[in-house]
Write a sequence for this structure.
């Protein structure tokens, strides 16, 4: 591979460092997607639907690999925000389409309430904001900071909207984040000192969270006990939970007492308590404020936000490991059409671009 280099924030960046992660991740993603398809068919999923869904996402990954392999390092860095913005549009479009497809065809929940759960305003506006920020804003962020500010807001909003709604998503796409972390540490020694402490924090948070939620009377055990109700997918489409396999160990049951989104929210408040909701709200707002504060400091741009990302990646990888080892059998390893394996792949590839290009 070419040894062509480019200076980014006074640090040489080789084409190998830029391209290798984007080649490794899609290939591994395709491998684990195939394994997930096998697992999904064992759970009475449609073989055609699973293969079609994964095939579409794998083609997207392959197309991105071709693009990354043929452009110069300079062009890759210059246009990565645009590619990432398009990736986000694909991600959120899949959320919207997934909501219409799942809820609209099953008849369990009307289309409008499902849009309220799947497509919150910040989800739809984020790609537009990102593209405006990096391509058209008169005060565009400098190279090396591209994407950090909107993603700081993204993670903060996820803490406000996504986590309280779902608490624990399914894990069909979590392996990408584990691989992403390993690749990040391997190719980016500059960031290694930052991501390792953050990873320990992520592991600690993951362990405590699972201990709380899987304990007798905890959130997960309470949800699993309600087998007479239907399910709903997560806000990012992270796995369609199977409604007919009531005795299957790999599923989480959620109660939907009403078609009204606000009533669903109140039901979740009742499950995890007002303190839990306030905790997630506080963490989300703190993340936004923290990210914006750090981004205003050019001496440490992106460093702290990258720690937040990696902590989140490690958290999700822990969920995956817990699921495959059988520690928490309530987690769903199946993978339907338009689920996390595709959207996570696109998002992970863009995040890896941002982190790689933010080296000092």
């Amino acid at each position: 591979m070419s040894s062509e280099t480019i200076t980014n924030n006074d640090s040489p960046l080789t084409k190998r460092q830029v391209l290798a992660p984007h080649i490794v991740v899609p290939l591994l993603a395709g491998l684990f997607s195939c394994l997930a398809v096998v697992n999904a068919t064992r759970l009475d999923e449609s073989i055609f639907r699973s293969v079609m869904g994964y095939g579409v996402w794998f083609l997207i990954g392959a197309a991105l690999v071709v693009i990354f392999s043929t452009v110069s390092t300079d062009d890759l860095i210059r246009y990565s925000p645009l590619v990432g913005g398009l990736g986000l549009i694909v991600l959120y479009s899949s959320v919207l389409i997934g909501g219409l497809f799942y809820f609209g065809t099953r008849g369990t929940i009307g289309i409008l309430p499902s849009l309220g759960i799947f497509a919150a305003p910040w989800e739809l506006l984020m790609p537009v904001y990102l593209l405006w920020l990096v391509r058209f804003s008169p005060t565009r962020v400098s190279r090396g900071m591209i994407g950090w500010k909107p993603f700081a807001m993204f993670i903060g909003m996820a803490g406000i909207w996504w986590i309280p709604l779902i608490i624990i998503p399914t894990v069909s796409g979590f392996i990408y984040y584990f691989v992403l972390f390993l690749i990040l540490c391997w190719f980016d020694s500059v960031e290694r000192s930052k991501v390792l402490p953050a990873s320990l924090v992520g592991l600690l948070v993951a362990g405590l969270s699972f201990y709380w939620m899987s304990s007798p009377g905890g959130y997960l055990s309470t949800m699993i006990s309600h087998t007479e109700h239907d399910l709903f997918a997560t806000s990012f489409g992270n796995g369609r939970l199977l409604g007919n396999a009531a005795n299957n160990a790999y599923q989480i049951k959620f109660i939907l007492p009403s078609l009204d989104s606000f009533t669903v929210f109140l039901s979740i408040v009742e499950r995890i308590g007002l303190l839990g909701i306030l905790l997630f709200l506080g963490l989300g707002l703190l993340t936004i404020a923290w990210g914006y504060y750090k981004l205003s400091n050019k001496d440490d741009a992106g460093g702290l936000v990258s720690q937040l990302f990696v902590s989140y990646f490690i958290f999700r990888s822990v969920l995956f490991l817990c699921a495959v080892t059988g520690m928490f059998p309530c987690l769903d390893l199946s993978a339907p059409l338009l689920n996390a394996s595709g959207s996570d792949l696109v998002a992970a590839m863009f995040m890896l671009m941002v982190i790689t290009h933010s080296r000092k």
